[in-house]
Amino acid sequence: MREQERRVSIQGDGMRLHTTVAGEGPPVILLHGFPESGRVWRHQVPALVAAGFSAWVPNLRGYPPSDVSPHRRDYHLRHLVNDVAAIVAETGHERATVVGHDWGGIIAWAFAGAHPSLLHKLVIVNAPHMGVYLEKVWRTSQLFRSMYIGFFQLPFLAEAALSARNFFMVREMFRRVPARRGTFSPEEIQGFVASLSQPGALKAALDYYRENAAGDALEMARKAETKAPVQVIWGMRDPSLGAFLLEGMERYAPRMRIHCIPTAGHWVQNEAPDEVNRTLIAFLGRGA
């Protein structure tokens, strides 16, 4: 698979995105979450290539070697969505399938609502629709599960805590949050930390939470709807996102199917890669 990879720098909405491309055929754009990088999709890329698709895997803005901005406003959801539109244009195809996990999933939902003509199919991997999330957060265990988001709003203090002792809290996140222990090797975790420890990168990752917690960005996410086919893949042992967030998603995506994996958690694409890949390819069909 490595021989088929190529790296491209794509001009997004004011910032350049380091993107790895593998394979030929209809494009599938894979969007990572916090605090990862495009490497989180390493199990899915070979499966997509073998099925006849091209896999486009960006590091999101603020995640080196993509551009990092010190300005919080540069992480507004509309810029994140426009970055995805720029990647679609770079593929040379009129439309693309978009796959998003965690923050990548929130961006994918918003992209589907903002650019329906650019979307072929949508795949959501353990990421809430914000309309459902906002309905349930105050009357379910989600409020407790999401308390870290309030902590992330604190400037300087959140950065200091997450980076302390050589990013100990971040390393523990990758070690302990997956339902399957050993999901990420020490080398993989070090790779994520190495990116996050670049100048300005940790603040940029936290600015996703700070810039989009209220106002028009939150409204954009809350109102996003799509008529495109949608596949949701959900690891049921996710400690940060309750499975009750699946209830009501169909209001925003009537052509939705849901596949739950009881033994996997938040990083379901890494914890149960074979089942995720089978579900993904079955939904997409065969490529060129």
Q: Assign an overall shape.
A: globular
Which structural class do you get from the secondary structure elements? alpha/beta
Strand order of the largest sheet: 1-2-4-3-5-6-7-8
Percent helix: 40-55%
Task: Work out the number of β strands.
Answer: 8
At the fourth level of CATH, the homologous superfamily is Alpha/Beta hydrolase fold, catalytic domain
CATH topology: Rossmann fold
Tell me the series of helices and strands, N- to C-terminal: EEEHEHEHEHHHHHHHEEHH
Could you walk me through the main structural features you see in this protein, from its secondary elements to its overall organization?
By secondary structure, the chain is an alpha/beta fold. The protein has a single domain, classed as 3-Layer(aba) Sandwich (Rossmann fold). The protein is about 40% helix and about 15% strand. It is built from twelve helices and eight strands. It has helices spanning about 45-50, 75-90, 105-115, 130-135, 140-145, 145-150, 155-175, 185-195, 200-210, 215-225, 270, 275-285, and strands spanning about 5-10, 15-20, 25-30, 55-60, 95-100, 120-125, 230-235, 255-260. An eight-stranded mixed β-sheet has the order 1-2-4-3-5-6-7-8, with helices on both faces. Strand 3, helix 1 and strand 4 form a beta-alpha-beta unit.
